[in-house]
Specification:
Elements lengths: L1 H39 L3 H5 L9 E5 L1 H11 L4 E6 L7 E4 L5 E4 L1 E2 L9 H13 L9 H8 L1 E3 L4 H7 L2 E9 H4 L12 E9 L1
Parallel strand pairs: 2-8
Antiparallel strand pairs: 1-7, 2-5, 3-4, 3-6, 7-8
């Protein structure tokens, strides 16, 4: 009789273990699926604000919580970002063919001479945070390699203290370059964000 009791206890223990194991596996599977969904839908408001070009321009008033993530996404997602400041602030200067410094408020990193995404990210970080950037010691190297001289004042201070009107648009790069013979299916969309200081 004692053996039967021990056998029943062991069977119950195995059953509880199998049940706990199956619940754990199910829970971990759901956690993985949930985290994947969260990663795919991060920053949904920003993604859903894009509209197809239907003659209307999408506008809204934004602050630094929208602008700074847009700047970091510019080089990854082929954005062109244009700033319109009230004063003479500029983001960087480049030499033209005559050797003169041309000030720019346009970020279109696809057309610049960067060695890779890492250097683009460092450039954006230094442009935003200036001497507070974690990459500030690489500023001279990046400027030398790209031919772009960053403004000495940090952009973060201006973005933090002001509101900007954000205008969104889309165009095809091939049309901008005059390559109208490129089939529509093979054209590359370029998203343009314009921030006008209020």
């Amino acid at each position: 009789m004692e053996n039967i009791t021990d056998a029943l206890k062991m069977a119950a223990s195995v059953l509880v273990f199998v049940l706990a194991l199956s619940i754990s596996i199910t829970a971990f599977g759901q956690a993985r699926r949930t985290s994947q969904v969260l990663l795919e839908y991060s920053d949904r408001e920003y993604d859903y604000s894009w509209v197809e070009n239907n003659g209307n321009v999408t506008k809204r008033i934004v602050g630094m919580e929208t602008i700074i993530p847009s700047l970091y996404r510019a080089y990854k997602e082929n954005y062109k970002i244009i700033f319109k400041f009230k004063n003479n602030y500029y983001l960087y200067a480049k030499k033209d063919e005559a050797g003169n410094d041309v000030k720019s408020c346009i970020i279109d990193l696809e057309n610049e001479r960067f060695s890779g995404d890492s250097q683009k990210e460092k450039f954006i970080d230094i442009m935003i945070y200036g001497n507070n950037s974690i990459y500030k010691d690489q500023k001279v190297t990046i400027e030398r390699e790209t031919g772009m001289t960053l403004h000495t004042n940090e952009l973060y201070g201006i973005i933090k203290e002001n509101k900007f009107e954000e205008s969104l648009g889309i165009y095809y790069q091939e049309e901008f370059e005059g390559k109208y013979e490129t089939p529509l299916a093979n054209r590359n969309k370029k998203r343009v964000i314009t921030y006008t200081q209020q």
